[in-house]
Specification:
The protein is an alpha/beta fold. It contains 10 helices and 13 strands. The chain is 34% helix and 18% strand. The structure holds zinc ion. This is Glyoxylase-like metal-dependent hydrolase (Beta-lactamase superfamily II).
Length: 322
């Protein structure tokens, strides 16, 4: 890591999260970590900040992405075609916008949401989940990394898989001093949404993103992290207390859902409508992801059980659970 510098670029996004951070690792070569959102405004902002360091986009040797969400990959469409793009294998089907995968995605969620108690008429009207993809890219990974790998050309940076916010989510840990490039895994002011995704090839069950996220949070305790440079906002310095805070908040949210289920058994969609009485129509995927996350959590700790009644899941509080 001698002579290695890290620079942060802050670029705008059209999303409610606000700006997104991109990082440049300057060692023997130039590595870009994450690639903003596909808007002209983000591209100009990025280019300007790169110029201030004396570089052009064509100087970048490789791009590594923490996960596949549009605000972290969109500018791949603007970067020179020959630049290698590296990420987790689960990112590829998203950033390629693979039509076969998107058809599977559509079918999976149609069936799943019907089982969650969503009416078919409503399901047809819901805002198209693909709308945010216009800010994404159409580019394939040229290389993949997984748990325990080093970053190409940066052997002191290790890859840690942190599924939860996205199935493709990974973070990078510099073993020499405990610095982490954390994507959206740990953010100072917001808790990342555990987004529902269909199963990956060869997986029979859907992932349970909130349970994965909590496990990925606890996994951070295995590392001596001195600082996290994040995907949005400022650095996180005190990682352990942030993890405590996130897990406590999580228990509190689940408690609220459990109270609801103590009144009467409900389908996931009914829980969602009660939790997000106005937001659920506009932010259907997001609010259902949050709801399913709470239900998966309560089921995991044994506070609720689910039954399938007339092809719909119904969740019920377990007697005496608290
Ligand atoms: Zn993000």
């Amino acid at each position: 890591m001698e002579n290695e510098d890290i620079y942060r670029f802050v670029v705008p996004t059209p999303f409610s999260v606000g700006n997104v951070n991109m990082y440049l690792i300057k060692g023997d070569s130039l590595t870009l970590v994450d690639a903003g959102v596909k808007t002209e405004e983000a591209w100009q902002s990025f280019k300007k900040q790169l110029h201030e360091l004396g570089y052009e986009p064509s100087d970048i040797d490789q791009v590594i992405v923490t996960h596949h969400h549009p605000d972290h990959v969109g500018l791949l469409d603007y970067l020179p075609e020959g630049v290698p793009v590296i990420g987790h294998e689960k990112a590829d089907r998203w950033i390629r916008q693979d039509p076969v995968f998107f058809d599977e995605h559509q079918r999976f969620f149609e069936q799943f949401f019907l089982e969650c108690g969503v009416e078919r008429a409503f399901l047809e009207e819901i805002p198209n989940w693909r709308r945010s993809l216009r800010y994404s890219c159409r580019r394939s990974l040229s290389g993949t990394v997984k748990e325990g790998d080093s970053l190409p050309g940066l052997t002191h940076w290790k890859v840690i898989e942190t599924p939860g916010h996205a199935q493709s989510h990974i973070v990078f840990y510099r073993e020499t001093d405990g610095l982490m490039l954390g994507g959206d895994h740990l953010l100072l002011h917001i808790s990342p949404n555990p987004m529902l995704e269909p199963p990956f090839e060869g997986e029979a069950e859907r992932p349970k993103p909130l349970l994965q996220y909590n496990a990925s949070l606890l996994k951070m305790r295995n590392y001596e992290i001195t600082r996290v440079m994040t995907g949005h906002g400022e650095d996180v310095q005190d990682v352990n207390s942030l993890i405590e805070k996130r897990l406590a908040k999580q228990r509190e949210r689940a408690e609220h859902v459990l109270d609801m289920l103590k009144q009467e058994p409900l389908t996931p969609f009914q829980v969602c409508q009660r939790l997000f009485p106005t937001a659920y129509e506009q932010e259907f995927m997001l609010t259902m992801s949050e709801t399913i996350g709470q239900l998966d959590y309560l089921e995991d700790v044994g506070a609720v059980i689910k039954q399938k009644i007339q092809n719909q899941y119904v969740y019920e509080a377990v007697e005496g659970s608290h």
